[in-house]
């Protein structure tokens, strides 16, 4: 391996560490919330804002961050974002009040909003060869995918040995390593065309994404009849529509709408949105099932996600071998098929299924994710030249984030509705608020029949949610088989088959 090749792959390792940190931070907070509620004397509303502040900042800043990277230098903005992520993590760890923590979480979201798209945007300059770029994308997406289920494991272990702030301090050494490696190994890159920043586009996109995301977060927390949430969604949609109209007229638009004319970017983005929509509910439901139904602690619930991680690793390794030979159409169709089967098996879960059954279907899910995510990402990124890699990556990640947020709201509502329906006579506060509260009430009253009913109702709600997710993935399987075309193999001199895609 040449020295320059070694530097590229070392740089990729640094970016993977940064993305692993981002993935961890998405879910590590969930296991720390009960402890933080006591130590910070936080209300239920404050606990919700600990998560929402991060998500809202992420949604609002991502598109402008990509454009700033294209304009002023992707490495420069990425390095600043990593340093901000480390500083914000320290601020989170030593927050003394709920307000301080919410502000620090918002800073974390801003830092992540620049880190995610720009760490992807530097890949085309690091790996100009299509084969090497696809392998790099696989590693990049795997580090993110593994970080999400690792969060409860790391958080559970830290909480057993240290105070709640440690779940944020774990970010600091990882960010330092990543920042040093980026500074030394990643080349600077920027758009060859110097453009003014589209300030009206920044305002319209940021406030529009803020309204849309906030509305669906509130719907997920309340219900589908919450009028203020729908007003926020409507305002967000209206502002985003105005943003798209402005982008058609602006001399230097924030995003290039012509990207969607390329079938690789268009369909790759659609597949990523559908996968995120279907999978986000699973990430937040399985730990609840482990704790409330199977009766394990926070660390145990995290460890029970190890089969999912193993499946992702297996899937990405297989994908790395078969994608160049079989092409995107076959890999995506098989991948979404595996997701459908895994989610369908999850939908058959009963109160007596136990962990071995969960391990089987989460492993299948992990393998499917390992097929779908890198392949769809490769399709989308294959359409981006170096001039548009920052804004294009930001657009892709912003749409993924929106899909995940809406997925949590929709799937969470399906779960809650079925849970309350299956409670029967127990459908009353506080039991109806959720399975964790219901189990706590049953334990306090020492009522085995109530405990059985609460657990059974939750499993019914989880099953309904997983069947909806399976239906989405089944539709995506058909879509991938119909609209994605790619050559099965290529000879030397041909372009990457993952990029040889067009709509049927």
From TrEMBL:
This protein's superkingdom?
Answer: Bacteria
Q: What's this protein's name? A: MFS transporter
Q: Which SUPFAM superfamilies match?
A: MFS general substrate transporter
Q: Which residues form the Major facilitator superfamily (MFS) profile domain?
A: 11-488
Q: Where are the transmembrane segments?
A: 12-34, 46-65, 77-96, 102-127, 139-159, 165-187, 199-217, 229-246, 267-286, 298-318, 330-351, 357-381, 402-419, 464-483
A matching Pfam family: MFS_1
Q: How does it sit in the membrane?
A: Multi-pass membrane protein
């Amino acid at each position: 391996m040449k020295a320059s090749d070694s530097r590229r792959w070392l740089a990729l390792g640094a970016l993977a560490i940064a993305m692993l940190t981002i993935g961890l931070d998405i879910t590590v907070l969930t296991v720390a919330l009960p402890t933080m509620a006591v130590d910070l004397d936080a209300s239920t509303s404050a606990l919700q804002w600990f998560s929402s502040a991060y998500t809202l900042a992420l949604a609002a800043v991502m598109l402008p961050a990509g454009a700033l990277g294209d304009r002023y230098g992707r490495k420069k903005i990425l390095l600043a974002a990593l340093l901000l992520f480390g500083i914000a993590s320290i601020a989170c760890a030593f927050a003394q009040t709920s307000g301080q923590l919410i502000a620090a979480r918002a800073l974390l979201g801003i830092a992540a909003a620049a880190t995610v798209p720009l760490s992807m945007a530097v890949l085309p300059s690091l790996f100009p060869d299509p084969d090497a770029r696809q392998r790099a994308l696989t590693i990049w997406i795997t580090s993110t995918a593994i970080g999400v289920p690792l969060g409860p494991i790391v958080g559970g272990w830290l909480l057993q040995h240290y105070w709640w702030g440690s779940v944020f301090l774990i970010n600091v050494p990882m960010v330092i390593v990543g920042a040093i490696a980026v500074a030394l190994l990643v080349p600077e890159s920027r758009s060859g065309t110097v453009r003014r920043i589209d300030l009206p586009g920044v305002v319209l996109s940021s406030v529009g994404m803020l309204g849309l995301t906030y509305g669906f977060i509130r719907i997920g927390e309340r219900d589908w009849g919450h009028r203020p949430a729908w007003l926020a969604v409507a305002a967000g949609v209206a502002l985003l529509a105005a943003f798209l109209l402005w982008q058609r007229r602006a001399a230097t638009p924030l995003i290039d709408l012509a990207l969607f004319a390329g079938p690789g970017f268009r369909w790759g983005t659609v597949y990523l949105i559908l996968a995120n929509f279907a999978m986000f509910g699973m990430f937040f439901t399985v730990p609840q099932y482990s704790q409330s139904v199977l009766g394990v602690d926070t660390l145990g619930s995290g460890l029970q996600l190890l089969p999912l991680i193993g499946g992702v690793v297996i899937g990405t390794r297989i994908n790395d071998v078969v994608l160049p030979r079989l092409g995107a159409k076959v890999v995506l169709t098989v991948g979404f098929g595996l997701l459908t089967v895994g989610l369908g098996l999850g939908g058959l879960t009963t109160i007596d299924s136990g962990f071995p059954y969960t391990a089987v279907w989460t492993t299948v899910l992990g393998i499917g994710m390992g097929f779908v995510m890198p392949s769809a990402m490769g399709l989308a990124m294959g359409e981006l030249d170096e001039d548009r890699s920052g804004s294009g990556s930001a657009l892709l990640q912003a749409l993924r984030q929106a899909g995940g947020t809406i997925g949590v709201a929709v799937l969470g509502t399906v779960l809650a509705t079925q849970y309350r329906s299956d409670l029967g006579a127990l459908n009353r506060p506080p039991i109806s608020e959720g399975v964790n509260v219901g189990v706590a009430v049953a334990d306090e009253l020492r009522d085995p029949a109530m405990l059985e009913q609460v657990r059974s109702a939750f499993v019914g709600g989880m099953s309904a949610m997983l069947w909806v997710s399976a239906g989405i993935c089944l539709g995506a399987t058909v879509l991938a088989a119909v609209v994605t075309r790619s050559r099965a193999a290529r000879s030397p001199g041909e372009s990457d088959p993952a990029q040889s895609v067009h709509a049927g």
